[in-house]
Each structure stands twice: as structure tokens, then as C-alpha cells.
Give the backbone structure.
Amino acid sequence: MKPLLKTLLFLSGWAVAGWIFWYLRAPLPERSTDVERPGEAVASPYQAVFEKWAARPEFTAALMALVVLDEEGKPVFSSPLGETALCPASTLKTLTTGAAFGILGPEFRFETKLVHRADGNLALVGSGDPTLDPNDLQQLAAAAVSAGLKKVSGDLVADVSVFSSPPVNDHWNWGDIGNAYGAGAYGLNVGHNRMLVSFRPGAKPGDAAEFLMADPNPPDTRWESEVTTGEPGSGDGVTIYSTPGGRVISTFGTVPQGPAFTVGGALPDPPAVALATLRAALEKAGVKFSGKPVSREEAVVATHRSAPLAEIIDHLHEVSDNLEAQCLFLTIGNVSLTNPAAAVRGYWEKAGVAFEGLRLIDGSGLARANMIRPLDLARVNFAARRGPHGERYFESMNPSLGGNVRAKLGAMSGVKTDTGFLKMKNGREYTFALMANGLGTGFDFWELRAELLDDIRNVAE
């Protein structure tokens, strides 16, 4: 090798070695901590407010999460558990009601029909209307008589085929489904599928309480009561156990010492009660049933239409009605020709909500197995507000804090949740989801919730 070439190679090697030496000694650039991650707000002015609130001793060992979205749907604050799926309780209803506005429309009405069938029977055909009541059945009977109904060759029967799902979800607690708030969703409902059950307390605490009556009392029902007398002022301590279509109802727990005490229960067989109510009205009006069906041409005799969907949702949100929510959920499935959970999820995904960790068991939130991230719950409500009927959806939400909050609350043992809209101090409207799981007892969560939301809306950005 020529001397010049050897010299050049020698110098090049030393240059590369020197470059590597100084590169390794040079300090690495600091990693930026201000990079925004998906679903995460950076340097939020809300963080101190939430952390101070969530550090209260009442929340020890509880899972607390808050997400706040701006007017464009971007998170201005997401607490550490904002992207962790939690139990939503009744705030899950907003997935159902928002989808119902979009899929069914605010003018949708349930129709319950009285149909003279080709087999000679008179059929009460349910549509899953959760608002049908005994007075509606009286009016249906009157309309049928006015239309000329005088005689039925067959019998009065119920058609509940509109819902193929069982009326009671597999994930609902057995201790819930016999009580008024846990009533099942049938193709034919009546009086919100509820009954009033009365007891006469004993002379002193610990004595047996006498079962007095149930109104309405399902036909051929046997009551087995082990209710006892509690301390004066102890309130409703009764749990009612029944099965759909069953004829044995068991009651346990206590009623307070004092005068007769009434609690709410769920009807185990609403179609049977509806038929008995309608038959009594028809017979009172002179309609005869021969019980010997004769073939004839099928014809609709009378129809009852419910209030518009928007009015049903007003009531649903106001009192957090589980039956109404579940019937809407199942109806969405029927209209969409698919599983209701798939229909609801699909609606929100098309609206831009990319769920992670969602477990959608029912339409009411009664199942503790329901799970949703606070971020996704907020995004659902953001999308609902900007949907085709967003203003009407907004109006259906319950106002608080002087009208500065419109929201839907959720509650069950150990769980408190809240989602909706905040009018900020600067006049902007933000969307939020607040979720707490694993709460203890002995304090007013809703009072503390009001303090948090008021502080949040007054934060200066």
C-alpha cells in the first residue's frame, strides 16, 4: 500500500474514534414532558381542584375519576383513572337515551293493539311500551266497544313476542328484580310493572309483621312472608323475591313499628295483570267471550299510542326509570335488526366514540357488570349534544347549580356517577363525566359533587 494512502486511512480512523468519544460524553437532550397523549390533558388548571377534592377522607380506598371535554370534544382534564373502565350505574342510561333519539327519533311512539285474530281469539298485542297503565287499557276497551266489538268467539290472549329477550337480565341481582326499581321489561307492561305491598307491623320490634295485601295482586299468587317488625322510623327494609311469570312471591326484611306500612314491588307477570284488567273492562262494557274460537279475518280493533319518545325520556332522566330505559334498549335492537348492545355501541361508534373496555350488559345500568371509561361516557354525551336532536337531549337532562349543570346521575351501593354538561364561568359549555366506585357510607356524595362541579366551572383557564 502506498505511504500516502496509509496516512489517510490512519487519520480517518482517528477522526471517527474522536467523534464517537465526544458524542458519548455529550449530555442527552431532555425528554419533553409536555407531549399530549391521546385522551390526556396537559398541565390542566383543573388538576389541583380535583386532587384536593378527591383527597377527602370520605373517598379513602375509592376509585375516583373525572374527565372534562371542551367545546370541540378535546379533554381539558382527565384524571389518572379517566381511561379506566368503571361501573357507571344509571349514567349508562345516557348511551340508551342518546341512541334512542338518533335511531327512533323524538316523535317515536309505542303502539299497543287489540287485534281480532284469524283464529277467533282477541289478542292484546304488546309493543314493549313501558308507560302503558290500567287507564290506557280501560280506554282501549272503550275504543273497541265503540268500534262495534260485542262478542269474541275465542278468548282474550296476550302477544308479547315483540321482545325475544328474557324480561329479566341474567346479570341483575336477585335481590333487585323483585323490587319496584328492578321490574323486568316485558313485551306487554302495565303500571310500570309495579305493585304496592302492605304489612301490619307487630306490637314491638322483632315481632312478625302481617302481610295484608298487594295491589295489583297477580292472579293465583301465593305469598310467603317472613317480614318482621323493626325499630320505629327504620323505614323500608323489605326485599321481595320473585321470578318472571312465577306465582310464588317471598318477602323478607323489616317494616318499622307503627301503623300499616307499604312498600313497592315488581310484578312477576305483567301480561297476566294487563289481560285481567282489560278483560274486566270489556266484560263490564258487555263484551262476551264464548271460549270457542271460530276462524275469521284478522282485524285491528283498537290501538293505544304512547306519548312521544322525547316525553318518555324526560321522565326517564328525571326519575332514572330502569324499565323505560330497558324497553328503549330492546326496541333499538328490534328496529336495528340486531342485538341491542351491538346496535347501541354501533350507533356511538359511527358518531366517533372509539370505546375501549366497554361492557354493555343492559340499557339501564342496573347490572353491576356494566363497565365504561369516564372518557368514553363523556364522549357519548358530547356526541349526543351534537347529534340531530342534541338540543332536545340537553333539555331532558336534570338541571342543578342554578341551571349551570345539566346532567344524569347514577347510584347503587358503593357507586355514584354523574355525566352531562357544565356552563363554565366564561359562558362556554363543557361536557363532563364523574365516576366513583368503592364508596363507603355516612356522607352526602351529591353535596360534595356539587362543590366539585361549582369549583370546576369557576376555574380560570
Notes: The radius of gyration is 30 Å.
